[in-house]
């Protein structure tokens, strides 16, 4: 879909900027698969009118027990958590919603700690790259002109904790990149990102996203010069998940319909039938008692759940051990766009934020919002 350039659309300044070298060197967490929403990877028309940079964040649906207090100039407390801007109860067709209206830059101050938050000074360039990606995603969503809110405060869009989540090092990254977004052909891109991409990130086509054929969302080689990959900074050495054949039927019954599975019976075998350029599984066949079903792309992660949690990634192999199907994999997240742990590894190798963004979103340009 194309995002309409309407009255709330973001405008870009004609000058294209580049982030300079970032001071190096400080430990880490990064998020576990936080990412821009899978269903939309197309770019938005350039940006907001001057002075119109308020983003509306859906914090939650009203519960009837919500407590909203104006606790200071420009600060509101909702259920014990502080937010910049205003928090109001608004109504749409789904009912009452708690919506925080906040300046875009202040919104980012509440996003980065939950998305990549690191306290290691070596990671400053990675935090700056995350700030630009998150700002680009938010600005593109604002350009959609939704009725009640622009983004949610969860992994459905970007994790947002408001003022209560802010930290000095992530605030610094927001300030250092103030107003900068990624563009392609003068459009703001949604800049998807994920936690851990392994040796190669994925193209959007591998996930079968709608309108996924964006030239800046292609597989990126993330091998580090000394061996391994840049995302080895995470310390992760892969993951395993075990499924019994009997246990796969209820998963298909609960989650298969959304993945295009029409009929479900006892599962006899799982079989990988296709992989994409990055090596990720793009088609997984479920051989059942009375037929076969193919689940594709990121839907594979949604169907193969453990205690409700989706599969970490589609980069895996399958081995049958007795009645147990063992999935051995690596990475975390959908794999498209910037690897957050890869960005951290690149920052520790001396890459600046501009180089990190150019690596994961090849061909994009940095431009300031007016």
Notes on the structure:
Strands 1-10-9-19 form a four-stranded antiparallel beta sheet. Strands 6-7-2-8 form a four-stranded mixed beta sheet. The protein is an alpha+beta fold and 370 residues long. The protein folds into two domains: 223 residues, no CATH class; 91 residues, no CATH class. The protein is globular, with a radius of gyration of 21 Å. α2 crosses α3 and α2 packs across α7. 50% of the residues are buried.
How would you concisely characterize the structure shown here?
The chain is of the alpha+beta class and 370 residues long. It is built from seven helices and 19 strands. The chain has two domains: 44-231 and 334-368, no CATH class; 239-329, no CATH class.
List the helices and strands and how they pair.
Blueprint: E1 44-45, E2 54-61, E3 68-72, E4 75-78, E5 81-84, E6 86-92, E7 95-103, H1 104-115, H2 124-142, E8 151-152, H3 168-176, E9 180-184, E10 187-188, E11 193-194, E12 239-244, H4 245-255, E13 267-275, E14 281-288, E15 291-296, H5 299-303, E16 316-321, E17 324-329, E18 338-339, H6 340-348, H7 353-360, E19 365-368
Parallel strand pairs: 2-8, 11-18
Antiparallel strand pairs: 1-10, 2-7, 3-4, 4-5, 6-7, 9-10, 9-19, 12-17, 13-14, 14-15, 16-17
